[in-house]
Design brief:
Elements: H1 9-19, E1 25-29, E2 32-36
Antiparallel strand pairs: 1-2
């Protein structure tokens, strides 16, 4: 998961702080973190 990546720790903290300010919800899909909006993956 993102928090387990040590190479990009500072960058991931910054990205996480930005995502926390959005209405996106973090969930796990097929073993990976994904972000949804109103129950849908926003990239679809």
């Amino acid at each position: 998961m993102m928090q387990n990546n040590t190479q990009w720790k500072e960058e991931l903290v910054l990205i996480t702080s930005i995502l926390d300010k959005t209405p996106l919800e973090k969930t796990i899909k097929w073993g990976a973190e994904v972000f949804t909006y109103n129950g849908n993956n926003p990239e679809n």
